[in-house]
């Protein structure tokens, strides 16, 4: 037999299929060890055949198998072609997406446990061997016992002696490392509301492949997702459930486990390598039928997929920021198409891009306008922070927020304080000369961290000593501007000394349980106030929260990004949605320095349609997406000369493209990227606004052609972040 193999080297020069002779049992989808260029490396078997297309003496043979079962599902090969072609990556790079990285590096293996299995009590034990007799009695009563526990109880000597006499047998068995095994049960099956039932029927009966559920926060979207999944499971099919943040996975997993038991498996970058390996194989072997996870779980090793759910579809985390820079919705569409599955996108604030498609009839549109049990959406109160400063209020809290906090705490309810950043006071600024402390490697402003009393770069992690005087002019008026979570917590403690406060941001959470533990404490009401950044904005369901404070609503308004307005609207709506979800009505205090801003006005009125009509008219008038495509080609290198040289080549290649297709270009220029340097790498960019995607393939090709070992060139489409 011969195997067609793609070697696990993501390089365009070896991006083709190699042939090896192989044992008869070699299956398509298996990973194998093959000799390659004097080394032995991993490869993926993409085909097997009886005859070889090369002379037999030229064909080397496979060294061995990596997996017993094929790790890759058949669909991978079709997806591999689509992804490799769409994003111009080598086939091996596309295949890697389907295998957790720890598995590829061969660092994890199955876990085994030993068990003592009872055989016979018909053995001779000496009268002095009391422990042996007790152990045998114990094992006999149970049939089998875990070996280590048994040794702890009766001594290893006694257990081994019994095994030696044939009274018991020691057997090794594979065990699953089970993440989040202590999750509390959440939410039983519910009687669907008429709106939920109608949504479900709509998804079932329509011939559309993709559905967008636009439902206000707390309208019961999750229950619809669970029912879509349940129906597919009943039909013997499988499902993938994507959430935007890994911090949300335990909460959803709890609901899935409650409903589907062991059929739910979690794919989560925060799991231990062993846990991830086991959960992944549970899905691959078909033992588990539902995969839940963040973005990368769209590559879950499932066959026969019936439904793919993307919750909070507008979230920017669904775009990959490393190669291949895929869009999760795009991959999900490919998989839905291949499997004949339903793709369900859901959000309280759909992305403008998706909503346009839904309105044009390309997606089925389902609208849920009311919260479950018709609970009102929380009232949003605007606090004008300019006035607070004029009144001499130097804390981060407006009078309105202080009052509402007081009421909330007195009534025994909980509050969430949301802010858009991390760290204590932020950038360091000299009031005398305007000097701003920046990172030497990255050319971005440094952030002061009071816990370590140092300045940190958030792009490369470099630490700098705190300044006492300005290094430029020697002035002593060095200021720390802005507020961070620590300052808010400090102010809060001053205002409400008795309040129990939890803080959640990138500095306080680490590891897979970090998020989970903080959220768990809060949901068990072990704290009154949760202060946090973006990661508390999304999806969480805390029934006792009746107040949300948004500290700096403008933050995201002032980014130089065409989506700032959309982002701000989404953020305010999402965060507000955490308030008043259960019994009591909720409130939101929104602090801002631009209370007259129209985006804030629409947000306060929960007027998605008003926001959308306004936004889409603006995009049309200015020619921004979805009426165009923003495309950025990045050139990065440690070597400044090489980077500039490459930039020039890229620029001229695209310029030639433009001369041939002038009608496709709206805007085109080359420049320094706003952040000139990250981690010692210089960054240049060619920025374009295109009519549509007609030339994208050519632009990707230009990027691939100009990438060298020292200079990386890559393409971003409608980049989430233009820094
Ligand atoms: P969304 O995902 O739209 O924000 P959720 O699905 O979290 O909303 O639902 C909000 C709340 O309503 C949850 O506490 C959920 O348990 C509850 N809920 C959802 N559907 C029903 C139903 N049919 N009957 C009773 N309670 C429901
Ligand atoms: Zn840096």
List the helices and strands and how they pair.
Elements: E1 2-7, E2 18-21, E3 31-36, E4 39-49, E5 60-61, E6 64-65, H1 75-87, H2 91-96, H3 101-104, E7 111-118, H4 130-142, E8 144-146, H5 147-154, H6 156-164, E9 168-175, H7 194-205, E10 210-215, H8 221-234, E11 238-242, H9 249-260, E12 264-267, H10 273-284, E13 290-293, E14 305-311, H11 328-339, E15 342-347, H12 352-359, E16 364-368, E17 379-384, H13 385-390, H14 399-410, E18 414-418, E19 428-430, E20 447-449, E21 454-456, E22 463-465, E23 478-480, H15 485-495, E24 501-504, H16 511-523, E25 529-532, E26 545-550, H17 564-576, E27 587-592, H18 598-604, H19 608-622, E28 629-637, H20 640-660, E29 665-678, E30 681-690, H21 696-706, E31 711-717
Parallel strand pairs: 2-5, 10-15, 10-16, 11-13, 11-14, 12-13, 14-15, 17-27, 18-25, 18-26, 24-25, 26-27
Antiparallel strand pairs: 1-2, 1-4, 3-4, 3-6, 7-8, 7-9, 19-23, 20-21, 21-22, 28-30, 28-31, 29-30
Helix pairs in contact: 1-11, 4-6, 5-6, 7-8, 17-18, 20-21
Bound molecules: adenosine-5'-diphosphate (ADP) and zinc ion.
Account of the protein in words:
The protein is of the alpha/beta class and 723 residues long. The protein has 21 helices and 31 strands. A 7-stranded parallel beta sheet has the order 12-13-11-14-15-10-16, sandwiched between helices. It starts with a strand and ends in a 6-residue tail after the last strand. Residues 439, 441-442, 457, 459-460, 462 line the site of zinc ion (ZN).
Summarize the structure.
This protein is of the alpha/beta class and 723 residues long. The protein is built from 21 helices and 31 strands. Adenosine-5'-diphosphate binds at residues 187, 190-193, 196, 215, 217-223, 372, 541.
